[in-house]
Write a structure and sequence with these properties.
The complex is a heterodimer of chains A (303) and B (309).
Chain A lengths: L1 H4 L7 H35 L4 H6 L6 H4 L7 H6 L4 H6 L3 H32 L5 H9 L10 H10 L6 H5 L6 H14 L2 H9 L4 H12 L1 H17 L2 H6 L8 H8 L7 H21 L1 H14 L1
Helix pairs in contact in A: 2-17, 7-11, 7-14, 7-16, 11-14, 12-13, 14-18
Chain B lengths: L1 H8 L4 H43 L2 E4 L3 E5 L3 H7 L2 H31 L5 H15 L2 H11 L6 H8 L14 H26 L3 H9 L4 H29 L3 H7 L10 H11 L3 H29 L1
Antiparallel strand pairs in B: 1-2
Helix pairs in contact in B: 2-13, 4-8, 4-10, 5-8, 6-11, 8-10, 10-13, 12-13
Classes of the chains: A mainly alpha (303), B mainly alpha (309).
Chain lengths: 303, 309
């Protein structure tokens, strides 16, 4: 902000040189920041497509060769996807686990958008005695610390017989107080009351009004919250780790941590598996960056 | 809204009145059905676990053996003399202390430095966003490789510069700062985005007025930016403290609480108790105490927020 208010005046050659120097400095700093934030990903992505023995052999000196493969190969990918002899022998089937991750995340997002939108519509528009106590009931869950209550959550899910099933990964998250709260704000601030009142006066029920009038006007809010919810579920680790033991329904992140890691010998496989769990999501989020950033920003501004 | 309209249409005629009455009641039931699924979810998966934990905490209880004897507050008494718990508590606080202040200062610096709109800042912003949207377990795996004491990327840089190797995750003193540094790298984007939004909310004319009054950049930052950013800053501090206090994934993957318990944080200890040592009763009691600590922290911090307004 303040930077624009003190423009460097470039009248004299000395000032111009100083301006150019500042420009160069800025580019150097930008490049440095990009290096810090991206270099682990560069190492991971290229490490997944190079011959296994190259990874350690080219560590020193630290140079482009540390990253860029000499011999490009998809061997590590074939192994972790269980598509070659080694992979089949070791029981890798990351394609299935990646599918599980996507299935669980998208199902939760869809369910969560339906039920949270309905809940938000109730709080934002419908009349109901004692509604302010119900909203307290919802908002108080903000205060329940997440990771600290995972163990008791497991006890509950187990007593419901949901453990070790897709149900364990999906059912606890089909409603979210954060999404409800955010959608209530959106409906209150962005949609004129006249719109849905008119629909109700015309004889439409609550259900029709919600899906025909409110939802089409809530799309940006739904996209934003869908992205945040997707990220939340995709990133869950502790929960699937303890609630699911079968490798066939487990999500990719847990299987990678369980079978590959820094302590096993073949880093190429770890790089390939990690890339599988990372690249699709990073691409989606960078494409929809605008909505995602808005969502994160609004968590702070609303407080 | 609909009810206001119906009431206006009601007439004194008794049968019409009762028909409107039952219609209104049906409308209330329909309305309630909209919120019911969410309420059931919160009750079952957010409230009942707390009661369940409170209940389990007064029993001998393990996942394999089921419920055993009622033992009252024995688990809570045990905590008072559990040396590992106190180490875990200290380690957790150290993690928060390493992470939160540095992350907030760096995020604010980045937000100020990258506030102008250009292709350069757009690229850097996307770079900051990338670790944020990558799952924490993957980030932990990759960073454990970067920190690796033999073949890590950082060792490669150090040796290429002619410096000796450094042990990170296997060193008692370095392990926790190393994990905290990675977590700052991963989470800084959240604080950064919130600060950028907060900075945009400060009217430009304040700065213009400050220039007219002869203020320099530091003075406008000190007397305009900081005070106006304070509520947002408080929010970021509160949420980051609560989240960081519950750190689990990087500890699980990178250090397993070691070396010598130096990174054994509270949530990792609860996990070990419940799932490794089969002491679910004690784990539940620990969950309850952690919950109470976190509620107290957020209550205190929210009071500070209120005082601000």
């Amino acid at each position: 902000m303040a930077a624009e208010l003190h423009p460097v005046t470039s009248h004299t050659p000395a000032a111009r040189a100083l301006g150019a120097l500042g420009q160069v400095l800025r580019i150097v700093i930008y490049a440095g920041l990009c290096f810090i934030f991206l270099v682990p990903f560069v190492w991971m992505v290229f490490g997944g497509v190079r011959a296994e023995n190259e990874i350690f052999a080219n560590l020193i000196p630290f140079s482009l060769r540390t990253f860029i493969p000499i011999e490009w190969t998809l061997e590590s990918y074939l192994t972790v996807l269980g598509l070659n002899e080694t992979g089949r022998m070791l029981g890798y089937n990351f394609g299935l686990n990646l599918g599980n991750s996507f299935f669980v995340s998208t199902t939760v997002v869809l369910l969560s958008l339906v039920f949270n939108t309905m809940g938000a519509y109730f709080f934002a528009r419908l009349r109901f005695p004692g509604k302010k106590y119900l909203i307290l009931f919802v908002l108080a869950t903000f205060l329940v610390p997440f990771e600290a209550t995972i163990v008791p959550l497991y006890v509950v899910v187990r007593s419901l017989g949901l453990h070790n099933s897709y149900g364990a990964l999906i059912v606890p998250w089909f409603a979210s107080p954060f999404v409800i709260f955010s959608l209530i704000q959106f409906m209150r601030d962005q949609i004129p009351y006249e719109l849905d009142e008119a629909a109700l006066i015309d004889g439409a029920g609550y259900w029709t009004t919600l899906w025909r009038v409110i939802v089409p006007n809530t799309v940006p809010g739904l996209v934003t919250n869908g992205l945040l919810e997707f990220q939340f579920i995709w990133n869950l680790f502790y929960w699937p780790l303890i609630s699911v033991t079968s490798k066939d329904i487990q999500v990719l992140q847990v299987v990678i941590a369980g079978t590959l890691g820094q302590n096993q010998q073949y880093w190429g496989r770890t790089f390939a598996g990690s890339s599988l769990a990372t690249i699709p999501v990073v691409v989606i989020f960078l494409l929809l960056q605008r909505y995602y950033v808005q969502g994160v920003a609004s968590t702070g501004v609303k407080g | 809204m609909a009810q206001r309209f119906d009431a206006a249409g009601a007439t004194p005629a008794a049968n019409l009145f009762s028909r409107v009455f039952t219609w209104r009641r049906r409308q209330l039931i329909v309305a309630f059905l909209f919120v019911l699924p969410a309420l059931i979810n919160f009750l079952t998966f957010r409230y009942i676990p707390i009661f369940e934990a409170a209940y389990a905490s007064v029993f001998e209880y393990s996942l394999l053996g089921g419920f055993g004897d009622f033992i009252g507050l024995a688990h809570y008494q045990r905590m008072l003399t559990d040396p590992v718990l106190w180490r875990a508590f200290q380690s957790t606080v150290m993690f928060v202390v390493y992470k939160v202040p540095l992350q907030i200062v760096l995020a604010l610096a980045l937000a100020l430095y990258l506030s102008r709109q250009s292709i350069g800042t757009a690229i850097v912003r996307s770079a900051i966003l990338t670790p944020m949207v990558t799952s924490l377990i993957i980030v932990s795996i990759i960073w454990a490789m970067i920190y690796h004491s033999q073949n890590g990327l950082i060792q490669s840089i150090l040796l290429s510069l002619g410096l000796p190797k450094v042990a990170f995750l296997s060193d008692v003193n370095n392990a926790m700062p190393a994990v905290a540094a990675m977590m700052i790298w991963k989470d800084i984007g959240f604080s950064f985005i919130i600060f950028v939004a907060g900075l945009k909310g400060i009217p430009e004319m304040y700065y213009e007025a400050a220039i007219v009054d002869g203020a320099n950049r530091w003075q406008s930052f000190r007397h305009i930016t900081l005070p106006l950013l304070r509520p947002i800053m408080m929010f970021v501090i509160v949420t980051q403290t609560i989240f960081s206090f519950q750190v689990f994934v990087p500890i699980y993957q990178m250090t397993q609480g070691g070396p010598l318990d130096s990174t054994k944080v509270i949530v990792y200890y609860i996990y070990q108790m419940g799932f490794r040592f089969q002491e679910m009763g004690y784990a539940s009691a620990l969950s309850i105490v952690t919950l109470v600590i976190l509620l107290t922290v957020s209550w205190l911090q929210m009071r500070v927020l209120k005082v601000d307004e």
